[in-house]
Specification:
mainly alpha
């Protein structure tokens, strides 16, 4: 037994892969790898496009919000201007009403004073014309109240119309 037994090597064709199949498998693996790389590249590009679209939409929304805020600010300014105009118009009407009320109060005061002066005033036509004071003072009061009656309401109406017209131009 000291001799070594040499067993011959036998190659069974079914145990080894044919070289063409190895080449086809290598090409398939290379194709699979490149397809995976291309897929990742396409997914990355689409995600960048989606991010760009989202950013664009955010910018558009921000600009629309700014525009809406500017429109609201302009509307508020117009409303404030209209309110100020109405307040000025109301103040002018109140001023006119106060002037009318003051004129009416003065007329009433003069009307109360006239009968009282007329009751106390004695008609001395001969003496008044001789002295020049009595008839002159009485006629001055009468002419004053007569002027107020002639021009008072007419001038008040004209002033109100003019004030109204001027207020409409403001």
């Amino acid at each position: 037994m000291s001799e070594k037994v040499v067993v011959p090597k036998f190659e069974i064709p079914s145990e080894t892969t044919h070289p063409v199949i190895k080449i086809v498998a290598a090409i398939g693996l290379a194709l699979l790898g490149t397809t995976a790389i291309l897929g990742f590249a396409i997914m990355h590009r689409r995600s960048e496009q989606a991010a760009a679209i989202a950013k664009r939409d955010e910018i558009i929304a921000a600009r629309l919000a700014e525009q809406k805020a500017a429109e609201d600010k302009a509307k508020a300014a117009v409303a404030a201007a209209l309110a100020a105009k109405e307040a000025a118009k109301k103040a002018e009407q109140d001023k006119i009403a106060a002037a009318k009320a003051a004129a009416a109060a003065e007329k009433a005061k003069l009307a109360e004073a006239e009968p009282a002066a007329g009751g106390k005033h004695k008609h001395h036509h001969g003496k008044a014309s001789a002295k020049g004071k009595g008839a002159g003072a009485g006629s001055a009061v009468a002419s004053k109240t007569g002027d107020d009656k002639k021009t008072g309401p007419k001038s008040t109406r004209d002033n109100a119309a003019i004030d109204k017209l001027l207020a409409s131009f403001k």
